[in-house]
Amino acid sequence: MRGADILVEMLIAYGVDVVFGVPGDTNVPFYEALQEREGRIRHVMARDERSAGYMADAYGRFTSKPAVFECPSGAGAMYSLPPVAESNASSVPVILLTIDIPLPGEGRGVLTELDCARLFEPVTKMSVQVKSAEKLPEILRRAFRVACSGKPGAVHLQIPEDMLRAEVDPARVSLHVEEECASFPAFPTLPTPDALHRLMTLLSTSERPLIVSGGGVNRSCAGPEVTALAERLNIPVCTTMTGQGTMPDDHRLAVGVIGDNGFHPHANWALEHADFVLFVGSKMGSVVTIGWTFPKITLNKRVAQIDIDPEIMANNYENVLSVPGDAKLTLAQLIDLAPAGRDHGKTQPWIDELNGLRAEFWRNAEPLLNSDALPLRPERVVRCFNEALEAHGKPAHIYSDAGTPTPYMTRFLKLKDRRTRFAIPRAFGGLGSALPATVGAWFADKERRPIGLFGDGSFGMAVGELETLVRLQVPAILLLFNNGTFGWIKGLHRLRGHNQCFSVDFMPPQGQAIAEAFGVKAWTARTSADLDKALAEAFAYDSGPCLIDIHVESIADRVPPVYSWLSKRGRDPLAVESEEVRYA
User: Fold this and answer.
1) What pTM did the predictor assign?
2) Which DSSP helix (H) or strand (E) runs through 14?
């Protein structure tokens, strides 16, 4: 039995149904083994290794299964680094297979030689080189175990080509798999009963409690548990950017998004004025705490954390209580402990106050959401998208790049269908991920429409994957925010009080023409009427991918809803009044 056969048979046994990747000189044996098993496992060819990684990232975010992608040696491995780093830092279980030069060539100047095991060490949970074909089963089991247990993350295996060509006696190895590690979370943990009772006491005795739901809640699909606990105890819920979608946005206890980028002022106000805050699945990093400067009233001694990773407990603030455990299991235990007939009167004035601020914010936002100014305001784009998504009435997988879409989507997007998932890669904020991610999102669940949101800077980095979408007939809806600039960076230039912006502008792409050249159905939207029509037709179109080229105002034209930027312009970021803030 060849090493390549062992590798593919074990992937199938672990439930891997799709592998994303790019062909190269060294991975031919792997492709041969995949081809022989086409009916049992599928290979999706990307046009770039970075894109293959973002496909895997989306697949891992939208399923409970680890995603697998592969690349050839040398440059292929180097191109794979950004998505692996993003997945690992975002706690997404991904396994990368770099098929490398044969072992005898090490240190002899072979073309594409690279110490991949060391290259990926800083950005993965585990990075190892396979030096014996007989060890492939053992190392694969370890890879799935590491990727899916504890805090999930990325694993890298450097597999020399000769390991795949080598013949292995099946009697000398065991091809068994660990069923527990075929999905996340593997071996989920629970805190002690004492910790749970102490936490319930803190939640029950507070008059202004707040739950903050982070990306770990979405990763463990614990939104229903957060909602049930909040309803049982009558506690309002805020989310981080990556926790958005924890509960329907029209829920009476759903306050909004906290932090710096795309925040809701009333949500940040709630964080500052709560007497007890429970963070679930959040690192409490720089975006959530605005560089650890917010709340102004210190969070010390009024915070508890539930997280699967004990290493981040009380890392940034002095916790009242640290509760290590899987979010879904821990919250389920808390629900069982919560008194069913608890009097909601203690916290209702707090909830009423927050809902009053929330309602005032949305009333004041109406002029921006309904603006007919040209070029199109991002706020109006989100309003059009909200209405089209709700009219569609079916669940979707929405993946947004960093850049223009981010602050406006997190602030104004309204997710009312719990089945719709929203993801933003926020660990490193790299561009070029959303377009290829729609491929991974579709393979994650073909019952949910994949939707990618990205600016024209991102579009230029990943445009080749339009061919992949057409070849696979992925029914993705792609929204291109087109304004001819790296707007976020240009905005930072202008935030310094001058218009001397250097090397940030480029020619706006002809999005519709480019898409159509690849065979993608496309529209151009310059007005809200154009956009409404295009969105309606896009949601009705299911014969393949489609793209809407939206000519939209740049972040560099008006200060976006970013707490730190508004502060630098002398504004009160917690004001719920609607205001257009200019740079100068």
Assistant:
1) 0.96
2) none
